[in-house]
Design goal:
The chain is an alpha/beta fold and 435 residues long. It has 13 helices and 15 strands. Strand 2 and strand 3 form a beta hairpin. It binds pyridoxal-5'-phosphate.
Length: 435
């Protein structure tokens, strides 16, 4: 009966959305309710959410829901009227940045934020060339699709985007180590700059996620990003940090992932966790850039930064602070990492465990020496985890890196459930290989 109902919903979905609209899991999930780190399906079955970073302060966080409904039942207009919520929120938001990043523009999605950042970078530098990694995803508008070297067709034909190999210390360029590796990847960025120049184009900037999250939450060779940015700046370009996934305290120690590095961006883009599911995103940049750009190119976004959105954004910041969620990312994050490293000792398929606060990447390999990506196994693992009530997914060039990125109120007891279930599933997958 229940599976007939799911089948019917799936067929109707295919008819109105087509066969290719992405859907998680071999047996798609129909979710009907969420609370904190938990989700429930239509049959009342409970799942531990270890994947979704948008419900940053927890699914249906009461503080956020209350702020949203209070403002929605009072007034909702747009940023062309004065409103305390907008200014209060932006003052608090910009207060989380290093000196120099003091002005903001609000949008509804991360894609819009990146599109705006590209326009601003190109306008302010007078150049067109953008440098990204060779497995990048930064959203879905046309200009942003051009920088989507992971799987966007527009990135294959554009002349104004060049890429460099993902700065990966697990599969290092030419087998190099340490400082040599950092330099080698920075040289690849220089090569992209030189290629632009050879084609008669100047460089507007480098745009990367400081966590290199879609690339697989890489362990970036120390010193690489600082050197790469210096080369881009020397060529006249700016540094755009895409914090759409990485930001808002997920990395634990710092509010922004770029603050782990010794270089401050010129423009930062953000989204996903910002509104806990309400469409709130934006750009924070050097005031001189925002002033120069917006003087010439009037920017208005009908829904971006409404009083309701800003009330929501403020409630997210309150929840992060009052519930000590950054501290939790440090302590519970370290506990998860330790547990994953213990699993690595017992399961040969785990090639490397990577972590940054409440964000984990588990690189799966068929052979630890050859580092052959365990793609089919990764797929089996996420589906078995789902069957056992724990939701995770994969990322990376081969989709063989487990991506674990739970809502921030994730506690030790949830970590135990994750680790125990993963242990069971890894054993099951290894047994199937032997059989
Ligand atoms: C790093 C990064 N940037 C930008 C985006 C685009 O955000 P949105 O889907 O809100 O447009 C995504 C979405 O997955 C992302 O992962």
């Amino acid at each position: 009966m229940a599976s007939n109902q799911i089948q019917d919903l799936l067929s109707r979905r295919y008819r109105v959305m087509g066969q290719h609209a992405p859907l998680f899991y071999e047996k798609p999930l129909q979710l009907v309710r969420g609370e904190g780190v938990w989700l429930w399906d239509q049959e009342g079955r409970r799942y531990l959410d270890v994947y979704n970073n948008v419900p940053h302060v927890g699914h249906c966080n009461p503080r956020v829901v209350e702020a949203m409904s209070r403002q929605a039942s009072t007034l909702n207009v747009h940023t062309r009227y004065l409103h305390n919520n907008i200014v209060d929120y932006l003052e608090r938001l910009t207060g989380t940045f290093n000196e120099g990043l003091e002005m903001a523009m609000l949008t509804c999605t991360g894609s819009e934020a990146n599109e705006l950042a590209l326009r601003m970078a190109r306008f302010c530098t007078g150049a067109q060339g953008i440098i990204v990694t060779n497995f990048a995803y930064h959203g879905n508008t046309e200009a942003v699709a051009e920088i989507g070297t992971g799987f966007m067709p527009e990135s294959r034909t554009t002349k104004r985007v060049k890429s460099f190999p993902i700065p990966d210390s697990y599969r290092p360029l030419d087998g190099l180590l340490g400082d040599d590796l950092a330099q080698a990847y920075a040289d690849q960025v220089q090569q992209a700059i030189d290629e632009f120049h050879a084609e008669g184009m100047q460089v507007a900037g480098i745009l990367v996620c400081p966590d290199f999250a879609n690339e697989g939450l890489l362990n970036v060779p120390k010193g690489f990003l600082e050197r790469a940015v210096a080369k881009v700046r020397q060529a006249g370009g700016v540094f755009i940090a895409d914090e759409v996934q990485a930001g808002f305290g997920r990395s634990g120690k710092h509010f922004w992932a770029h603050q782990w590095y010794g270089v401050t961006p010129d423009i930062v883009t953000m989204g996903k966790p910002m509104g806990n599911g309400h469409p709130l995103a934006g750009v924070v940049a050097r005031p001189s850039m925002i002033e120069a750009f917006s003087k010439e190119a009037m920017y208005f976004n009908t829904f971006g930064g409404s009083p309701v959105s800003c009330a929501v954004g403020m409630a997210v910041l309150d929840a992060l602070e009052k519930d000590n969620l950054m501290e939790n990312a440090v302590t519970t994050g370290a506990y998860v990492t330790e547990g994953l490293r213990k699993l690595q000792q017992r399961h040969a398929i785990i090639g490397e465990v990577r972590d940054l606060g409440m964000f984990f990447g588990v690189e799966l390999v068929q052979d630890r020496l050859l580092k052959t990506p365990a793609k089919a196994e990764a797929r089996r693992i996420i589906n078995l985890m789902r069957e056992k009530g724990v939701l995770i997914s994969t990322t990376g060039i081969h989709n063989a890196i487990l991506k674990l990125r739970p809502p921030m109120p994730f506690q030790i007891e949830h970590a135990d459930m994750l680790l125990h279930t993963l242990d069971e599933v890894l054993t099951q997958v290894a047994d199937q290989e032997v059989a």
